[in-house]
Specification:
Elements: H1 3-11, E1 15-18, E2 26-31, H2 36-49, E3 54-60, H3 62-71, E4 76-79, H4 85-93, E5 98-112, E6 120-121, H5 123-131, E7 148-152, H6 157-165, E8 177-179, H7 182-190, E9 195-200, E10 209-210, E11 212-213, H8 220-225, E12 231-239, H9 244-254, H10 256-264
Parallel strand pairs: 2-3, 2-4, 6-11, 7-8, 7-9
Antiparallel strand pairs: 1-3, 4-12, 5-9, 5-10, 5-12
Amino acid sequence: MSSLFKQILLATVCLFIAAGGAGAQSIVIKGSTTVLPIAQAALEAYMKANAGAKLSLSGGGSGEGIKAIIDGSADIATSSREIKKAEVERAKSKGVTPVGTAIAIDAIVPIVHSKNPVQNLSLDQLSQIYQGKITNWKEVGGDNLEIVVISRDSSSGTYEAWNELVLKGAKVSPRAQLQASNGAIVQAVSKNKYALGYIGLGYLDKSVKALTVNGVTASEKTALTKEYPVSRFLYMYTNGAPKGEPAKFINFILSPAGQALAKKEGFVSLPKKK
């Protein structure tokens, strides 16, 4: 998928795709912008194979998707993080039982401008940069330039995963520039020689440079083995175990054809069951 198409996709407030057919169940899918390309590709393929199915798909962040499951405005929540305990408790208070299904694996990749000489950052260096303790590229082997820190906003599952895996719960510097999507971070970093951002593996393109972390390159192999230290599962959440049309759609994503689509979009397919 091209970077331009991804940006157009993420800018879309709500994409609706439907094929005619009376009585078909309408499925509403909301949530993670990271999972959006996988969900979009799977939705298009599913629609071709299931005439009469009606599905709507929108982004907004993992937190928004989970909120939609809890308040009943979505059938499937896409999320790039596990549901929080507080969200589970809030769901229970409303009679909702969120059940997550892992649908792919992702690696969160730190990115810089293509002309930035830095090639690698350690987890500790990334943590200190995002906390505002390291502020100049010369402190990590780069030019004598102030680091422009770019982060996802707090409704993002990628933000939550980065906070857990890199910051270990420490607070992001208030000087960090917040962006609402992976595509927005790619665009911001590509235009700023001093910037540092992070994105899902499927959003990496030639307009920016990926850094290694602890000397490890983010790839399908290193994400699967967890040798790459900033890897995570991607999920779809439903109220209770998936059933009906939502179950059919999720099962399609878990099928070889669906996993091939996830891989085609630049993410990592789930390991095959032995």
